[in-house]
Amino acid sequence: MKKNKQWRVNIRYFRQRYGVIIALIIAILISIFLSVQLWRSPGQSMKQQKITNDTTQENVSGENLTSVYSISQLIFNQSDKELSVIDYRTLYSKIVDRVKEWDIAYKTSDVLKKTTYLNSLSQKNTIVMSFPDAVSGNVIQSIFGKRIKIAGNATINHVQISQDDSNKLFFYDDRHHKRYVYQVSNAPQTVQHLKPSKKTATVNFQWVGKHVMAATTTSVKLQSYSYLLDVDSTVSRLTKLFSDSGKREVNNGQEILTYSNGDNRRMAHNVTTGSINYDAYNVNHNANTLNQRQHEGYRWLVNLHQNSDNLYYFEERDQGQTLTYRLFVNGLPIFGQTSYGSVQIKQLPNKHARIGMSQYSLRVPLPTDQKNQINIEPMASAMADLESVGVSRNDIEQIAIGYRWQLDPDNQIVTLDPGWYFEQNHVWRSVTDQVKSEQGGH
């Protein structure tokens, strides 16, 4: 009893003498912890961006990277014709899920002449999946599985899978005219019995500039769409990355709000046009290859809340120093939202990254009138239209069918009509607009 009483007295004495000090220490530790969490919030965490290696990049990016770096064409090379599937997303997912389970062994690689390259891509009884522009070998592994042994810095434009008993898998690199050949030894589920959907277009493979595309050889009718405009969500998410409320300026009749986080981050929001430029300085990116830059591009999309369900990779320049992403509808890219696309990421000198975005996006699709379809002429006709107004085929870098972004600001509705678009001097233009402009608008 005497010992217990003495023990209680000692505890009481300890609390009286040191209790305040202990409580103060605990409060300081909690404060430090909360400060660290605040420092690591989205506005500050981007300061810590540094890509160390491909494995780390993939772990950070996660599976969603494979949905951003997706294909833009899916072609069935049948015995008598090549058919491009119009709305290919579901079929593409089914093929990817099957290929992931295959045992695949690398056989060989070869550099082909341009005509031989086309002939190989046109092999009968095969399925060809084409990306809108080159993706890295590491992205290919992220999509189809690590069983595919390919260099992380390889550049791939097309994937080809045999539907016969040859059990071959091919990857194609347009830039170097290179073909990688693989043998499938075990496929729990094959693609032999897969067929194109009812909505297709007849195509053939052609060189356009430095790219191979599946060019339509007949007219095809495509649906027009309408969407409610999403105006506020992008801006509201981005402004949360900054502590200030923005500085208002008016230049040449345009209202611009500028936000900054010291010397490291700056954002200029053009309220008049809806364009947004986000500049990051002292970025610790160690991105020197297409592979590293495509991973970092996805990282920026996530950090700036630009990874919407219908945003996809569209184009790269200078080994990924410029990456462009566009909104897609029904498997086709949207043009006219801005001068460059939906999001454009540029790696500039002196650890400087610039991300261009739009305030506007698509929110809710409106009911579709099935009769509201537009007849799209074959690619040869679009090329002939351009040549008739002085645009040489040799000057065309790429050509594609896409949707025109047409905004009705009064009703907050975006109308999307299909048409041909071509790239010249790194700028995409409407074929129709180019012809009208050269003909004086008549």
UniProtKB/TrEMBL annotation:
Domain Regulatory protein YycH: start-end pairs: 22-434
One Pfam family matching this protein: YycH
Keywords: Membrane, Transmembrane, Transmembrane helix
Coiled coil stretches, renumbered: none
TM region positions: 20-39
Protein's name in the database: Regulatory protein YycH domain-containing protein
